[in-house]
Write a structure and sequence with these properties.
The complex is a heterodimer of chains A (615) and B (174).
Chain A: H1 9-23, E1 28-33, H2 42-53, E2 61-66, E3 78-81, E4 85-87, H3 95-104, E5 114-116, E6 119-121, H4 128-131, H5 149-154, H6 159-167, H7 170-180, H8 192-201, E7 208-213, H9 222-229, H10 231-245, E8 249-254, H11 259-274, E9 290-295, H12 305-312, E10 336-340, H13 341-360, E11 362-363, E12 366-367, E13 369-376, E14 382-387, H14 392-399, E15 409-414, E16 420-423, H15 433-438, E17 447-452, H16 457-471, H17 477-494, H18 501-516, H19 520-524, H20 527-535, H21 537-545, E18 560-562, H22 572-576, E19 582-583, E20 591-592, H23 602-606, E21 612-614
Parallel strand pairs in A: 1-2, 7-8, 7-10, 8-9, 13-17
Antiparallel strand pairs in A: 1-3, 3-4, 5-6, 11-12, 13-14, 15-16, 15-17, 18-21, 19-20
Chain B: H1 13-21, H2 32-40, H3 42-53, H4 58-68, H5 72-81, E1 93-98, H6 101-105, H7 108-119, E2 132-137, E3 149-151, E4 154-156, H8 161-169
Parallel strand pairs in B: 1-2
Antiparallel strand pairs in B: 1-3, 3-4
The chains are: A alpha/beta (615), B alpha+beta (174).
Chain lengths: 615, 174
């Protein structure tokens, strides 16, 4: 085998050409999402395609394992090229029909398409979930095989890095990134170019670059999708960043809960080394850079940059006061720059298309696009990339299709445990760094969980405080003790033991924890309490004054009963009840013994006639 | 220690290989700047040991400490800080029940309770027959499948209390 090492920019260009020629021999491609869709049987689906296509005459059809297509609610989702047809909920039994009808005869199968106003829509521009988006950063996600560097190169990966390393000075790169207006996508939104400038100007030759892939916010999965679906884009971003600040060593710190991401990044790093895109004298630019992958060990606080550095140094992942900032004294006490996955994935785009094109998207509160992980009580869940400043209404209703099952939108939780709950009256809020702050939330990493009338906002606040309390590292008192106290009060309210004075206590304590905590975890932990108190105070008051949970969630405040007129006596509830609290003969109305009932909701879940009611 | 079916290596042969891989099989324990460098590798080292043994056996940790010079106190400090290190053997299958935001609003608490009920263990515990370890986790990053559980490396989405038994039965001893 010949040496794959690319010696200069020209080598990369000719490799690109070679791969294009190779690819032109393929007539059609079946792109099967092999990341999130795995949970819905994508592996078996791809295997079935490969088996059935392994016959003479089918050589021009290629089955490719790709990353996330975005519309996870239709998993397993496949795309057929060159027509770019999107088929959802595809089962192995559909494969024969797809091969015969679509791949051979070129006909669309309406049954597998998205349904839009009663009609079948096969292509992204006709599907509101996609037509409402601008997929710049996710452009290649779901379109290339993340396990093959050749696919990434064919899609243009490493062109921007080659351009930066061979034609631009580090100062030029920093100026471009500064002018683009890119801000950190990990949460705080610090201007990326400025951060790079600090690290570049810091004294010393030994500098480090870290990619923060410790995506810990519950409800966020965009970094996972990028690492799984287009790892070379992140590596290329790192290469450019390292060149700009003058770092020769880099780390990707990835959550251990993401095994597919770990697998794909490991492969991508090996391939990049093989092609000389990492290592010494990259593309004859005189610049050396290599990356090590490190797995986290399960600590949310390690998403905070100084805690992450402590973890990389083999210590307990505890944050430390800043200054000194990592740009001056970070890993091993040396200048260190830390960027989030999505931030780095934006970099090749900015270098390729220029700062002006990037700056033209978005608004004053943020430039470019933002990827949101849309989940919760919404019809279409998945990855959504929209220009900064797109309103919450557009994302939840136009792209997400609104709340399912005839329920109403109550709030969207933005930014995970550090963020806040944005209520229906703010649906027209533009989602950018500044506007989101005005309602007490933060942009955070981009988790967007939709809540409807069946969600109790006091319970949501309790949930987040339990989370931050568990994840508090314990170093500083306001966070360690404060979050415990906040969680205790919220538990008390949910248990129906709340007192009117608790609300005042919650409010003042929340503000103190915010002001007094050492790192971002504690400083933002009270946000879910403060935003729910502001927008959903009536729910708190119902819990405290009337001992009532309006959404029917808090166990101590609800009871289950069966409406005699609606009960058909099918016995499903009786079978489902784990404590035998339900009695009744076949075909006769059933009853729940309130003393024996543990309020697990199993009966409510199985009842075919909605006869089990919560009051 | 519970008896069971998990890999139990009484010796340190596996650990020796791991130290060699990390170039930590030293002539004598490191000190000073060298020790600091060794300590940087503590987390990957512990992860490899746990992969090999199924957990972190204390005698192996003591041996590693003697060989590398990394104080045992430092090791325990790190092990107890991170939620993914285990000092006791785990069951053959690990069930992770996601309690992230999206799963929470879709009723994951009831799923967790149904699993506890079925297995007869609490969060973080292992069944007596060493078949299952059950743990609640914060977010598996597969929110579109909410509520979701993960058994070993397989995801099961859109869980209901009714589905718990069916899914777990596939992993029970036959």
């Amino acid at each position: 085998m010949r040496d794959k090492k690319l010696k200069n920019y020209e080598d990369l260009k000719s490799l690109h050409k070679e791969i294009d020629e190779e690819k032109s021999k393929v007539k059609s491609r079946v792109l099967v999402c092999m990341t999130g869709c795995r949970a819905k049987g994508a592996e078996e689906l791809a295997r079935t395609f490969r088996e059935k296509l392994d016959v003479p005459g089918m050589e021009e059809i290629e089955v490719v394992d790709v990353g996330c297509h975005g519309q996870c609610s239709r998993a397993p989702l496949i795309m057929i090229e060159p027509e770019e047809l999107l088929y959802g909920d595809v089962k192995p039994k559909d494969v024969d029909e797809i091969i015969k009808e679509t791949l051979i005869n070129g006909r669309v199968i309406p049954r597998l398409c998205a349904e839009v106003e009663g009609r079948a829509a096969a292509k992204a521009p006709d599907i509101p979930f996609y037509s409402g988006q601008e997929r710049d950063v996710l452009k290649n996600c779901g379109r290339i095989d993340p396990q093959k560097i050749e696919d990434a190169v064919a899609a243009g990966s490493y062109d921007a890095a080659a351009k930066a390393l061979t034609t631009l000075s580090p100062e030029d790169v920093i100026t471009i990134v500064k002018d683009s207006g890119l801000r950190g996508r990990g949460g705080a939104g610090f201007p990326t170019g400025l951060k790079w400038g600090f690290a570049q100007q810091a004294a010393g030759n030994e500098k480090y670059l870290i990619c923060n892939a410790d995506e810990g916010d519950p409800g966020a999965f965009m970094d996972r999708a990028l690492l799984e679906g287009t790892p070379h884009q992140v590596i290329e971003g790192m290469l450019i960043a390292a060149y700009a600040i003058g770092a020769n060593n880099g780390f990707i710190y990835v959550r251990a809960e993401y095994p597919i991401a770990v697998e794909h990044v490991t492969m991508a790093l090996e391939q990049a080394r093989e092609y000389g895109l990492l290592g010494n004298n990259i593309l004859n630019s005189g610049f050396d850079f290599d990356i090590q992958l490190r797995k986290g060990a399960g600590a949310f606080v390690c998403g905070e940059e100084t805690a992450l550095i402590a973890s990389l140094e083999g210590k307990r992942g505890m944050p430390r006061p800043r200054p000194p900032f990592p740009a001056n004294a970070g890993f091993r006490g040396k200048p260190t720059n830390i960027n989030n996955v999505e931030t780095l994935a934006n970099i090749p785009l900015i270098i390729e298309e220029g700062s002006e094109a990037f700056h033209a998207k978005g608004n004053e509160g943020g430039r470019g696009t933002k990827i949101f992980a849309l989940a919760g009580k919404v019809k279409e869940t998945g990855l959504v990339e929209v220009p900064m400043g797109t309103t919450l209404r557009q994302i939840v209703f136009d792209v997400g299709g609104g709340v399912p099952d005839g329920h109403t939108f109550k709030a969207a939780q933005i930014g995970g445990p550090s963020g806040g709950c944005v209520p229906a009256q703010h649906l027209d809020l533009p989602l950018d760094y500044e506007s989101v702050k005005e309602v007490g939330a933060i942009m955070g990493s981009g988790g967007l969980v939709v809540m409807d009338d069946r969600t109790c906002m006091v319970d949501v606040a309790r949930f987040f405080l339990e989370f931050t309390q568990k994840e508090s590292c314990g170093k500083c008192v306001p966070c360690r003790v404060g979050t415990r106290q906040l969680a205790d009060i919220l538990n008390k309210i949910c248990d129906g033991k709340g007192e009117p004075k608790d609300l005042k206590k919650l409010e003042s304590l929340a503000k103190e924890v915010k002001a007094g905590s050492l790192c971002g975890l504690g400083q933002t932990a009270p946000n879910p309490v403060l935003t729910t108190l502001e927008f959903f105070r009536d729910e708190y008051e119902a819990h405290i004054n009337e001992k009532r949970c309006p959404a029917g969630v808090c166990k101590e405040l609800i009871s289950f009963s069966i409406t005699v007129d609606d009960c058909i006596g099918c016995g499903l509830c009786k079978k489902a009840c784990p404590v035998d609290a339900i009695t009744g003969d076949s075909k006769q109305p059933h009853f729940i013994d309130p003393d024996a009932c543990i309020k697990c909701g199993a009966c409510h879940e199985v009842c075919p006639t909605n006869a089990v009611v919560i009051s | 220690m519970k008896s069971g079916t998990v890999k139990e290596d009484p010796g340190v042969n596996l650990a020796r290989g791991i130290l060699e891989k990390h170039q930590l099989m030293l002539e004598k324990p490191a000190v000073g700047r060298d020790l600091e460098k060794s300590q940087e590798l503590l987390i990957p080292l512990l992860q490899d040991i746990q992969d090999a043994y199924g957990y972190l056996p204390p005698p192996v940790l003591e041996w590693v400490s003697k060989k590398t010079g990394i104080p045992i106190s430092r090791m325990y400090g790190v092990i107890t800080f991170y939620s993914q290190f285990y000092l006791e053997p785990k069951g053959k299958h690990t069930i992770r029940c996601c309690q992230g935001t999206a799963c929470h609003v879709k009723g994951s608490q009831a799923i967790g309770e149904a699993i506890e009920e079925y297995l007869g263990v609490k969060d973080g515990d292992t069944t007596d027959d060493m078949q299952f370890t059950f743990e609640s986790v914060q977010c598996l990053g597969t929110c579109f499948l909410a509520p979701v559980i993960m058994i070993d490396n397989d995801y099961y989405g859109e869980m209901t209390q009714g589905k718990v038994k069916k899914v777990l039965e596939r992993y029970s001893k036959s």
